[in-house]
Amino acid sequence: MSPPTPRESVCPFCGVGCGIQYNPTNGKAVGWHGAVNTRGEVCPKGVAAFDVVGHEDRLTRPLVRGDDGQLHEATWDEALLRVETAFGEIVAEHGPDALAFFASSNCTNEENYVFQKLARLLGTNNVDNCARLCHASTVAAMSDRLGAGAMTNSLTDLRDHADCFLVVGANPAEQHPIVFRSYVLPALARGATLIHVDPRENATTDAADLHLPVRPGYDIPLLNAMAKVVVEEGLVDRDFLTERVTGDEDFRAFLDGVDVDREAGRAGVDPDLVREAARTYAGAGNATTFTGMGMSQHHYGTDNVHALVNLALLTGNLGKPGAGVNPLRGQNNVQGAGDVGALPNLLPGYADVTDDAARARVADEWGVDADDLPALPGLTEVETTHAFGDSVHGAFVFGENPLVTEPNLARVREGFANLDCLVVLDIFPTETAELADVVLPGSAWAEKDGTVTNTDRQVQRMRPNADLPGDARRDLDILCDLGRRLTGREDQFGCDGPEAVFAELTRVTPQYAGMSYDGIGTGSQRWPFPEGASEGTAVLHVDEFASGSKTAKLRPVVHVDPADSVADDELVLTTGRVLQQFNSGAVTRRSGMLTRLRGSDVLQIHPDDAGSRGIADGDRVVVENDRGTVTVAAEVTPAIRPGVVFATFHYAEPLINDLTGDALDPVAKIPEFKHSAVRVRVADDV
Ligand SMILES: Nc1nc2c(c(=O)[nH]1)N[C@H]1C(S)=C(S)[C@@H](COP(=O)(O)OP(=O)(O)OC[C@H]3O[C@@H](n4cnc5c(=O)[nH]c(N)nc54)[C@H](O)[C@@H]3O)O[C@H]1N2
Ligand SMILES: Nc1nc2c(c(=O)[nH]1)N[C@H]1C(S)=C(S)[C@@H](COP(=O)(O)OP(=O)(O)OC[C@H]3O[C@@H](n4cnc5c(=O)[nH]c(N)nc54)[C@H](O)[C@@H]3O)O[C@H]1N2
Ligand code: SF4
Ligand SMILES: [Mo]
């Protein structure tokens, strides 16, 4: 392997999409002046991004499970032939819907586009990405109400024009650090306010004017109470309501039944604080919301976001600079994976699989008849694992680690054990790869070419800085090779490289129409990208909503109880993230630089709850419920609400998703990661 060469690429971690490249002086990453980090800023994860290159744990040879039950090194031909044979047999016996495809929001638009095309040309819509575990509910609510499930505004627009940030269930100071540092803090410095709704004080709270420590799962009562204050105190935007909003009368009738004190009480927040938050948000010239996993990951996550959209509609905070509903997206390409169709119900460009005209458009590009493409929605990720061994017998997991990140892992583990064939394409021997029949060694971000779409809809280019290790191959080449083998379609999986795939996907993804590699260059192109535009549209819904209608509707939202009821001796476990680790930790736990940072494998517990259980700071504690048992060190801290405990899901030990439940949102099928009932006690061995 020759030493890496600096070339402008994009950080592989969060959806902010900072431009980074190799720094030969210290072997770390350094920011270049990218489209988002315009002054070259990066956070600690970005700096450590090159720790994957040449890492001793990297997968460098294909692995195939032998008759002895062990994984053995194999040639590429042997490994791919094994996939071809096993998947062929499954399709022959059970039909194409007996296969399931997990796409990767950590990977490029081109890779995800080819991946979903492979699934669909095989005849199944069972393709999904971990947006399902993430903002699926947000996308569902926003698409339904406004016609687009994406940030309504650009980050630059918010930095320059927002007067108030209502941050609900998100911790951007740690999860979107460069958004926070380079867009939110400058806005606060010029006088904007920040309201933080989170059961836990964290780095975002440190910069907040108001903190509403909501009870996990009770955002709807809180947001309804805020809406009531807005209406009661005449803080609505009358002109906007007249011109752009319907359903006003029904909504007011609904609010008649909302009592601010009672709803604030249910949410566990001081009613005066709720009133102050409502006045601050509604009284600001331009107010935006930032919404995250604290809202989306409930079995009524879609309703949570509906309640947030109501507040924006009442106060006229949509369709103008500095105002809007802004979900901060998760991985570096979770926005793009959805845009290009790695979803079971939607084709590239969010066209419904049931829509004959949309299928015909895609079929035409792929050289088949519309009838040849599957016309019924496929299974979502969590539904898929529940169907393993039942209706689904083969799975292809590309750049995900579900054995750490899915809810109720005992059930998921059982599902995986029932598969006839599991194929994993990854860069490390993950907890999921350990169960695979075939493991394919792919390319890390630093070794690949392609585009990714960040949280504010900017499409940017990644460029290789480093050589591939051993026999590892580029993900796109592997997927194209498999596409040819599994479908026999040389013309559709020609391996002409990412630029050719991008050109194809812009023809079937209307939001990307007109974009090109040359046009993006070392800048970005933002969707929607109107013909003749140089940059794309920063603020959505200006004259009409993306739905094509001038108006959007207010919708009464009724609180639903979390799936787990909580007994007197139980606490509510909510889960989330910390700055220095990323998702399943497959990459960041292996980074020498990041693991030196402060430990994060702890259970945060309030001093009152710790005291009544005889737990001291640092004690090992057992956390358990009917689904599982986990042992972890306690961090006793008043930062967390009484009655609530918090842990991250970044580790295989402690494996927090052994405790989470798999109740799903009926619309978006997102699981309830943010509310589980648990018992906590000091571990016997101390
Ligand atoms: N450092 C780091 N950055 C990341 C990631 C990472 O793993 N590490 N992952 C990326 C991904 S995939 C995503 S999706 C984003 C997620 O980014 P965030 O949405 O910020 O992620 P979380 O930490 O899961 O949840 C945010 C907050 O919700 C709070 N919360 C919990 N329950 C509730 C509730 O019921 N109501 C409310 N209002 N709040 C609640 C938690 O205390 C937590 O502070 O981050 C991305 N960026
Ligand atoms: N309890 C709890 N659970 C959660 C959440 C929570 O808040 N609480 N959040 C959920 C959310 S929002 C998300 S997004 C999911 C994330 O769930 P996952 O997507 O399963 O988690 P990641 O760790 O991001 O998995 C990425 C995998 O891709 C591999 N990889 C990285 N780069 C590449 C590449 O370029 N090529 C290939 N082939 N592989 C690559 C990594 O090694 C890793 O195994 O977790 C969900 N689970
Ligand atoms: S903010 Fe996100 S994209 Fe930027 S360097 Fe940090 S992890 Fe990477
Ligand atoms: Mo996510």
What does this molecule look like?
The chain is α/β, with parallel strands linked by helices and 686 residues long. The protein has four domains: 9-52, N-terminal domain of TfIIb (Single Sheet), CATH 2.20.25; 63-133 and 333-526, 3-Layer(aba) Sandwich (Rossmann fold), CATH 3.40.50; 137-327, Dimethylsulfoxide Reductase, domain 2; 571-682, Beta Barrel (Barwin-like endoglucanases). Helix content is 31%, strand content 17%. The protein is built from 24 helices and 28 strands. The strands form seven sheets. The chain has a seven-stranded mixed beta sheet with strand order 5-4-18-17-16-6-7. A hairpin with a 3-residue loop joins strand 14 (346-347) and strand 15. Helix 5 packs parallel to helix 7 (177-189) and helix 8 packs parallel to helix 14 (301-314). The longest helix has 19 residues, at 76-94. It is globular and about 70 Å long. The termini are far apart. The structure holds ligand MGD (2 copies), iron/sulfur cluster (SF4) and molybdenum atom (MO). It holds the Pfam family Molydop_binding. GO terms for molecular function: 4 iron, 4 sulfur cluster binding; formate dehydrogenase (NAD+) activity; metal ion binding; molybdopterin cofactor binding; NADH dehydrogenase activity.
CATH top level of the largest domain?
Answer: Alpha Beta
Task: Estimate the mean pLDDT confidence.
Answer: 97
The bound ligands are:
ligand MGD, iron/sulfur cluster, molybdenum atom
Radius of gyration: 24 Å
Number of strands: 28
